[in-house]
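Tutorial sheet, problem 5. The two components below are modelled jointly, 469 residues in total.
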Amino acid sequence: MTHMHIPDGVLPVWLWLLGFGIMAAAAAFCLFRLRTVDLKKKVPLLGAVSAAMLVVMSLEILPIAYHINLTVVAGILLGPALGFLAAIITNLILAFMGHGGITVIGLNTLLLGSEAVLGHTLFYLFKKRLPVFWRAAAATILTLFITTMALIGFVAISHIEPVLILHGDEPGHVHESVVTIKRFAVMVLSLGVLGWIIEAAITGYVVRFISQVKPDLLAHVLHAEKPGQSQGNEQ
Amino acid sequence: MIDVARIDHWAASGTGRFHQVSVGAKMVFVLLVVASAVLARNPYPLAIGYGVLLVVAMATGLHWTRVIVLSWYGALFALLYGLSLRGGIWTVALLMIKAITPAFAVLMLIVSTPYPRIFSLLNVFFPEILAAGLFMTYRTLFILLDMMDNFAAAIRFRGGFSPGSLYKNSANISRGIGMLLVRAVERASRLYAVMAVRGYSGSMAEKGTIRFQRQDWLPLGTGALLLLLVLVWK
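Model answer (structure tokens):
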């Protein structure tokens, strides 16, 4: 789970505007990459995977309040460009459900979209070196590690002093941000590892299940493997 | 996650004053409230603004009790973020009110406007694939929520959930998610075939237009009042 539930008005304006700018540029690049694809055929699949991501996000894992995103699965199933577009759709709908701020849509899309892109790329890179389950699980762990570091980076950049947020005068916090960022990073990484393992296991199971039941969905990433081979490999 | 089906029902079946306002005006209202939250350096004007929004919601017959509850969803994260800043009670109060006020405005929009009308307006600014993807996601979401409910009930009846067995639960949930995805993709393929037969050519959503009407003074006035309050009360 690497998206920010930071409310509107907390992040510096330049940061969330930059987030929207990069998101627009990335979306334009994705559309450019998809220019040869018959996109109208992909719309139902895009909608189905985006809706599945939203449904799965509603399953909260207690007691760590972690929810899986299924972005790596989305990246594997849709490919990096459509996976990024699915992240945009998911974040827009989440924002219009009051789940997270409007201003963080850009940054959140960059985080979720990069999970889809990285998940697809790593799963593809691990081809034949690992069985399907472990390939998906390893891709998920690595992806979540990288995007969590990016999340910490965003928060570190945005960690402005309370005196700047308030008009008032609350002195004494000038040197705190470095300490609190370290604490924040330790907290996120220590809780995150548990979440990554759970998400990696679920992603591995889901991808293995799909490779057994409907391997043609993964044909573009499983490559030359035949369905029978992938089933044999994964144990 | 928020109960999407119930919100959709309220949006589609309501007849209150806020339901009759144009979508464009409600979107501008949300943007004004978000701008107020961005510019606020003091929790008081936003707290008053939250009160004003509440009064408007009550007066226009929105489901204000549920809207209050749902708007506080982001407060927990704002609290944690505020505590991590170690800025004292005022920082935490400001962050929390910044979280719940725009959330309240967004909820006022979605409980009074069916999603397809919101997406139609977004269609003016977005590429076709994104607008169509939003519609298709919205349509598929309800089907999948039903399927997930059925799956959860079925797995409970069959003893698939056992407290304390993380491995067994994870494996069963994963199979459920896998099945959900496979079924969703199969339905999407069938739907595409049906749409293609009916002449689908890549465009799904009617493009909305931003047209204001007389009743729009309510959201536009409320949003402007809130922004003015924040700008004046520094």
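Marking note: The beta strands of chain A are 60-61, 66-67. Full credit if you identified this.
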